[in-house]
Each structure stands twice: as C-alpha cells, then as structure tokens.
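[job 0412] stage=fold_complex status=start
inputs:
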Amino acid sequence: MLANLVLSAVALLPQTDTIVSADGANRLDLEILRGEVVVRTWDRDAVQVRADHPDSRAIEIDRSNRAISVEVDARRGMGLGAVDFELTVPRRFDLDIEGMALTVDIEGTEGEVEVTTIHGPIHVRGGRGTVVLESVNGEIVVEGAHGSVEVNGMAGGVTIRDCSGDIVAESVGGPLTLEGITSADVEAGTVGGTLRYEGSIERGGRYTFGTHGGEIILVLPPGMDARVDAMTLAGRIDVDYPGAPDEAVPVEGIPGMREMELSFTSGQGSARIEVETFGGRISIRSQGD
Amino acid sequence: MNGHLEEGILNDLVDGLLSEAEEERARAHMAECVTCRREIEGLQKLRSELARMPDDAQPARDLWPQVAWRMGGEADTGRKPAAALRKPRTQVRAWQLVAASVAVALFSGGSVWLLMTDRSSRPDPVAEVQRPTLAIPASLEEAFGEYEKTVSGLETILEEGKDVLDPGTIQVLEENLALIDNAIDESREALNRDPGSGVLRRLLTENLLRKAALLRHAAVAVRAQT
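[job 0412] stage=fold_complex status=done
writing structure:
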C-alpha cells in the first residue's frame, strides 16, 4: 500500500537539476524554510526541479497520489539556511508553496495556487480556480488570476490587478489596491491602510469595503446598476458620481462621535456596494473623472 | 433607535417571530438601510456557524442555552422551543454577540486551538494554555478575559520565539499589532458608548479576530523554526 502511495523518492545534493515525470500528478507541493522560489510553466508533462543549496542538505522529491512534493531534508546539515528553487511545472498544475522567509515568483500557471510565507514578497501572474496568498511581512501582487482570489497581507501592501472572479482581500498596515477587476463579489478591508478599488460593478453583485483608520477610494464605472451605501464614523465622505448627492448627511449615532452616511442608486440598483470606515475618509468617483 | 431597527426586532426577524406585517416593515426598512441589512446578515451567519459547532464546543454555562437557542437554533439544544419562542426573553446584548462571534471564529477556524494543542509529541511551551471555551461570559470583562486568554497563549509563543524570527518581521508584527490594538481600543470604546450598534460590534469582532490571526501566523512561524 505504501509502495502505491510513495512511488519514488529521490535524495539529491548539493546542486539539484532533475526532471520528474508528472505521470498523473496534478499538484506540486513545496515546503521550505527560506529561499527564493521561481515557478514557471511549460507544455511538457513533467516537473523540473533546480535548486541551489551549496551545503550538505538534500532535496527530497516524492510523488504520492496526485501530488509531487519537494522539500529540503532538514535532517542533513543545518536545515535552516536558504535554498533557492527554480521549478518548471505543467501549466495545469496546482501549486502549494509554504515557508517562513520566501521570495515567491510564479508565472503562467493555469492551476490553483496557494502560497503562505511569514516574511517575503509574493508575486503571482496567472492562476485559475482558487488563488490564496498570505504573507505577514512582504508585498503581495497577483495579476491575471481568474477564479476565487483570497489575499491576506499584513504589511508591504497588496495589489490585485486584472483579475476576475470572487475576491477577498485584507491588509494590515499597508495599502490594498484592486484595479482592473471584473467581479460580482468583492470583500476588501484594511486596518491603517488605503484601500482603492477600480473595477467592474456587475448586475446583482455584492461589494463590501471597510477600513479602520484608513482611506477608501472607489473609482466606479459610469452608468453602473448599483446602490451605494457609505458610512463613516469620525471620518468624511466625498463623492463625485452622476446622480449621487453632493454631501453625506450626519446621523444621530454614537454619543460624542460624528457619524455620516451617504446613499444613492445608479440605474436599477441591482448591485450592492457597501462602504464603511472608522476614522477614515471615503472617496467615491466615476471612472474617467 | 437612531433610525435603525431595534435589536429585538432584528433578533425576532432572524428567529422568524415577527408577524407578517412586522416582517414586511422590517424588510422594507432593510432594503434601504445597509446598517440593518448587515446586522441581520451577521446574526444569520453567526447562527449558522453556531449550528455547525462540534458538540464538545457547547458550553454548559447557564446563560448559554438561552443565547445558543436564540442564535444557534433548536438544533443546538435538541429542543423544539416553538412555545418558548413566543415568550418574552432577555435581550441578547452586544458584548455577548461579540464574545460569541469571536469564540465561534476561533473554534471554526480551528487553527488557533490546533496550534496550541501541539500535534507532535514535542514539549509545547504553551501546552498549559487552555482550549478556548465557547461560553458566553457573564460580563463584558469576562468576555474579553476569555479572548485575552487565547491571545496571550499566542503572545507567549511569539515572545519566547522572537530570536528565531527575522528582526524586520518582528518589527512589522509589533507595528501591526499596535495598529490593531488601537483599532480594538477605538471600536471597544465606541461600543461602550453605543452598545446597540451593530456596526461597532462587527468592527470590534473583526479587529479582535485580526489580532488573533496575526498572532497565529507569528506563532506558527516560531513553531516551525524551533
């Protein structure tokens, strides 16, 4: 049984450059502590692993079930130094990359992508299905993903560009920028960072934006079919959109705290756009203005 | 109440207790009011999450059955409170919902607790940290006490493992934790001024969970390196 699950295991050192047949696998798992990871795609049904690890550590490549897993054997050598990888995978492959201090650059994948690191930037161009990216201390950029995008950045900023599909994004202490977005479901929030959204508003869609101590800038398509509800506690709302009221109205709310609301409908109002800040400014304007 | 639906109306709407006319009025208001709409969505989400909680997460505290019944439905308690539903009840207070939301998120995410209950046999520096209990405390301070207990376990891991993390990452973590703490303080203070505010309740809950999530990331990093 075990033999079926673990079809091959290769231990290589100190420099690695090998090609492993995909042979039915559809996912690559990479787990390392630190290093630079570059992933590219090709049309071959195989995975190429190049690794630069100038010490006695080994790279283990296992294939089990439908996944090829690559990891640094920490039992050999120190196990804590950096190992740089260049991986080339079939375009359709899903990717699951996890580490502590990684610089990750992925391009051309048409599979699902999940990257988690504590320290270091993540840059993904491509991705289909589910794309999940998380870094505590590093910039995250995802471009051209189609499907469900979930990004969680704690510092360094998050940029989601030219993506389509459901989006959930959050950043703490850094800007969150969504531009060229085509989506009917967006949920984005920051603490202490500026949130900017420029993208489509689909009929019947749902868009939620929130910040605590940050600014929200929405650049919305003219002639959208949506209702906008904006609210700020101890902040302000500026709007410049056809049909929108000139000013937000104060509402009786929390004692000692100024609460402002602004609502307007464009078209039939089938989509919902909800915007909230605590102590921040909301700016809503039309694309092209 | 500030031009919004009263909390009791919202709760009864979730419970399906309003008359046809009352429900129609409430829904008409919600169609125009994002605050109340999000409030009701939050209650519905909380109710549905509570209904999915594992049996061993159900507390035995006296106050809990009432709250669980109101938010989690009869499936949680095994009783069919059709008659009881019609009785007047104690209002569920804002802090109870905050506490319940945080507890549900900590449990349903699972990761915080899993982190604290080491899956390996290695000695765990926070093994003594108790699994968070999904109890609805008897006071606001107790509610935050439960949360703080969970968070302090994670902080212990971070503190003890600071030397294994990148100094830049430590600095970012500390800066961001300070940001979130500030946000928690602000939303908590505002909620104290207006305990009925659904917006503030949600903000506070989100910020509490952000802090737990950030600490969890840090703790995982420390664990991995030690």
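[job 0412] summary: Chain A has a mean pLDDT of 88.
[job 0412] exit 0
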